[in-house]
Amino acid sequence: MLLSALLMSVGINSCLCVLFFILYSVLRKQPRNYEVFLPRRLAAGTSKRRRNKVARYIPSIKWIWKSWRPSEKELMESSGLDGVVFMRMITFSLKVFLFAGIIGVFVLLPVNCFGDQLTVIDYADWSANSLDLFSVANLKIRSPWLWVHFGAIYLLTAFVCCLLYFEFRYIALKRIEHFHSSKPQPHQFTILVRNIPSSDGSSVSDTVDRFFEENHLSTYLSHVVIHRTSKLRSVVDQAKKLYKQVKHKKPVKKTPMRFFSRKDTPEGHYERVLQELEQNIRLGQAEVSAPGKEVRAAFVSFKSRYGAATALHMPQSINPTYWLTEPAPEPHDVHWPFFSASFMQKWLAKILVVFACLLLTILFLVPVVLVQGLTNLAALEFMFPFLTFILSMKVVSQIITGYLPSLILQTSLKVVPPIMEFLSSIQGHICHSDIQKSACNKVIWFTIWNVFFATVFSGSAFYKLSVILDPKEIPVKLAVAVPAQASFFIAYVVTTGWTDTLTELFRVVPFMVSYIKRSFEPSDDNEFVVPPMRYHRDTPRVLFFGLLGITYFFLAPLILPFILLYFCLAYIIYRNQFMNVYAPKFDTAGLFWPMIHYTMIFSLVLMHAIAIGLFALKKMELATYLLVPLPVCTLLFNEFCRKRFMPIFTSYPAEVLTKRDKEDRNDPKMPEFYNNLVSAYQDPALLPLRFSGSRNDSLTSPLLSSPEV
Amino acid sequence: MLLSALLMSVGINSCLCVLFFILYSVLRKQPRNYEVFLPRRLAAGTSKRRRNKVARYIPSIKWIWKSWRPSEKELMESSGLDGVVFMRMITFSLKVFLFAGIIGVFVLLPVNCFGDQLTVIDYADWSANSLDLFSVANLKIRSPWLWVHFGAIYLLTAFVCCLLYFEFRYIALKRIEHFHSSKPQPHQFTILVRNIPSSDGSSVSDTVDRFFEENHLSTYLSHVVIHRTSKLRSVVDQAKKLYKQVKHKKPVKKTPMRFFSRKDTPEGHYERVLQELEQNIRLGQAEVSAPGKEVRAAFVSFKSRYGAATALHMPQSINPTYWLTEPAPEPHDVHWPFFSASFMQKWLAKILVVFACLLLTILFLVPVVLVQGLTNLAALEFMFPFLTFILSMKVVSQIITGYLPSLILQTSLKVVPPIMEFLSSIQGHICHSDIQKSACNKVIWFTIWNVFFATVFSGSAFYKLSVILDPKEIPVKLAVAVPAQASFFIAYVVTTGWTDTLTELFRVVPFMVSYIKRSFEPSDDNEFVVPPMRYHRDTPRVLFFGLLGITYFFLAPLILPFILLYFCLAYIIYRNQFMNVYAPKFDTAGLFWPMIHYTMIFSLVLMHAIAIGLFALKKMELATYLLVPLPVCTLLFNEFCRKRFMPIFTSYPAEVLTKRDKEDRNDPKMPEFYNNLVSAYQDPALLPLRFSGSRNDSLTSPLLSSPEV
């Protein structure tokens, strides 16, 4: 790609940035857009709908200041530790790329520029210069200047590792602190038990009672057996929907009620329909609750956190596939539909999902190959000769090489997070947070593999396969292929990166949906949903730019300022969104951090592999050998971090649990808490519903709040 | 190798077998050999020293019958579950190779023989026929007979997997049963805690007390802090040795006592020396026990097994590298010297040991290359032309190709188990059984790698390295190289395998040592040691023959009868040794089984890889593709077994623990047991010693019994 094409991209996107910023500052002030841009504040009642007509149309940048201001403590209160972890990922990247950017722009870039491998830069005609002149490709074989790059790699690795260590420690401590400051919560006292063996003659409930009274007598409190309620749930959902419509006095569709007498008053009529539904639900509940219809799983609650942890950690049964324990999720976080899976089913589902992911990865090569065709205009002209005329127009060719490729890639990447979320949901996870964590992991690796590696290796599946099977050659092949794609990824950062954050700010899809909805039916003040943050969509995206920055750090330092700008944008915009848009849906207390840590380590090792290959290509034998200890040490460092911090992220230690238990002993609210605990894990579909008569109680009771709200 | 050379080998070794059997039956009846051949029965007092001179010199085979007879229960009582597991490994192999042998000899061998790839067998001159005529190499490319091999591979895999499943289940149940029937033992109530953090001002003992009283109040009983006693231990050992000499009224070497008055009676003199030593030890003990000199580790005992398990499984500290818990070994199994290692030291030691093992593997290639030179006479003649005359003699060449190679390999393999045991001992394991387990694992992989792969790939280190780095080629390379070594491994089974078991029976080294000892000093009835079984030496050996049998099952079925014979010999001889020679030194309750299981799975997958390569070479595309699911399924089966059975081998489940605890509640002996528990884990070097005065007490007290006895 030529410098002019890059400048074109930067130009288009800078303009878009300014445009969107201005548009946003105006649009967010329009009362009817509050539901899209400020749903959180609207729900909290802190944002009054202003009627001042003039100020509403004047663009301002006050919102930037507002999203800059809040401290981490305030963020913690409003978005939980997960929000803090997400923001710390961005500040961590900012620190890394500030450091890398200074080295890259002020040391590596000049060194690269004054190399003489390629043609000397013609300062009169910048636009004609290839971006390769700014990359390490411009240094000759055995050039002593390469030692500068060598030093820079060691320096950056040391810096990132130090930062990773302190960050991991900080978040681990925050996690403990968060636990200490939390109120007693049902999931702290509860575990989920699966694969309860069937004992002849007695129900699941009796079996659970007998087992835990025998083996954990001193701490066992109560349990809730899980039922197969998928069918019932659909009836309940239907009833709720109907009730909502009735409540808002909307015309109910006539079809199901045509058979009832038409002479009723509308109220009397709805009342009767609801009674009918209620009756149906009650029958369904009785049927589902009947003995023999249970799933062989139960939520078991204990008198103390220590007791729950004891039962959680200890192997329970002589047959280790029975009485499997896992920590219970928060009650509103439970993913009810997938409890029926047995040990074997879960295991097979996992294997199937792995295969599905592999298949998706291979299918996804189609758009990647398409993108690669676009960056290579000559190949495109060769394949489609009739395009020659259009492609010969300078503007068209620059737009095509500079903008279109990443746009296509970007659009097809949009579908990946929902697919991965679906795959994770059928894998047998018991709660929404686990599903998101698992999906996040999948999306990270999918992005790295399908965007980075597939692009680098020009999208040939067979080529990729041969590389896996020949690991010795990997560094050299990477060192040949990765620098060749530098210009593509610089364009990718400028286009995808920048527009991504702006789309996030602008909430394009919800905005359009809300606009269309409003055009068809009048707005209803009470009926809007505060959306949850989709970590599995945004975390991999941010991490991928970190990976790009680290791998291209010494290859093409020109990428660094753009990446730095991306993280600045992301910092402002995500803070704004956490404050105004997203409400936390669950609280994993920072469980996303280890994933971020591992991805960073992977980025470092990938950089080392490329560096080793590059130094081998440049015939710097000594430097090549001196680089080998670096990935080894990085992996050992990672192993150390894993041993040092990971246990805190899997479960809370005895020390912390007993301390909290002791504090509770003097709490006068505990008896009430224990009373609620017994029923906290009731399946919402099995709770008594009462629509008829009073219209405003049951639906708003806390136990009925569906996880989507 | 020619058939005649093989027959030569078989001849020599059959003669040796008969000779050794006869010799053994005579030698074991000689009273002065009882200490070598029947130490166990001698120690138990069940073998009286017969004086009947005539019967002593008549060979008999009664001992075979005697070692055949005992049931598994009797074996369990005399040698523990570990002995049973070892014997079950042999019976398992017998079953596998009986099945494989029937298929191999009656189906595969005829199919191979009547192939026509190589020259037709000249029935008149058997001795001139190459062994390759009996192998799969004799079948033509695309021969339909290869489908017989295909079926045989599937059949054997299914058979072995079924057997493995039932065996794993059987041993897991035995383990639980063994626990149920065991008396209350200190290690069931105790855990080892390492990396106790230093809190300023208080001793380790106080820190432990405070921590466990705070976090495990209801179950905590007591603790024993560990001290750094390596120096003290050497003094104690010296004293014990001296005391033993005195006790047996042997002349004590004069050197250390020359400075004392010479006019004493011998008794008075020794008494004084012992008093001196006692004084020294007491001073040393006081010094070591002083506060601030402790190792930051302690044995912590609990009131119940359930309590100990709770503390064992639960993460303890906010910093996961502190308060590390692991199950305590049996008191007499503790390996005292290596308690000083910290978390980091242990980790680094582990990494270092891995590197040491790698180095050893590379160094070991020297004898392997030498062996390979011998099987290849032409190469040898080329390298050392002066040998041509000797090598041209038929007998010499047959001995060299048939017998010498495996003898050299064998001898150099003898040094591996002790080296591996040493490496494992510095790795930071806390007990002798863990050290043996770890050493056993190392020896298994070392044997497979250095005997199997190094031989197969002709001992070139660089060649081997290139194979790892090119995994796609592995099956084909194996399929070329493995069948080529068939004759070597057949000879290996006949020579090494058979003589190995005979050496085991004959206890060559101890026998010679005892003989030499007796020639120099008159025998002393009370001074013999019942040796422990060295599982890390014998298990890998037996397993390796299993691996050979499985991999060569379809390549060269001629190996199977010899392997079957080997296992028959091993069955008789090891049973005999368990009854008469080895006393159990520790009780891991079957922890060696998982290793055996994994090695079998590895053998199967290796066979599949070779088969895939072979079918690819024979251009059987369909068969090649149809074989690919087999290793995948085998690995999935292994994963299932791991999930299903492994947890039982890592710790006992709550169900079992509470049941035993309940039984104990009514046991009148428990208060006494708790009293002993408090001091069970005292370091023997710190116990009060009293030599002077009474001569027959302290040394025989159970707490002083050193782990070697």
From TrEMBL, chains A, B:
Domain CSC1/OSCA1-like 7TM region: 350-615
Occurrences of domain CSC1/OSCA1-like N-terminal transmembrane (ranges): 5-167
Alphabetically ordered keywords of this record: Calcium, Ion channel, Ion transport, Membrane, Transmembrane, Transmembrane helix, Transport
Residue ranges of domain CSC1/OSCA1-like cytosolic in the record: 188-337
UniProt entry tagged with the keyword Hydrolase: no
The organism's place on the tree of life at top rank: Eukaryota
Molecular function GO labels: calcium-activated cation channel activity
Entry's localization field: Membrane
Chain ranges passing through the membrane: 6-27, 85-109, 145-166, 347-370, 382-404, 443-463, 542-574, 595-616
PANTHER family documented for this protein: ERD (EARLY-RESPONSIVE TO DEHYDRATION STRESS) FAMILY PROTEIN (PTHR13018:SF104), PROBABLE MEMBRANE PROTEIN DUF221-RELATED (PTHR13018)
Protein family per UniProt: Belongs to the CSC1 (TC 1.A.17) family.
Name of protein: CSC1-like protein At1g69450
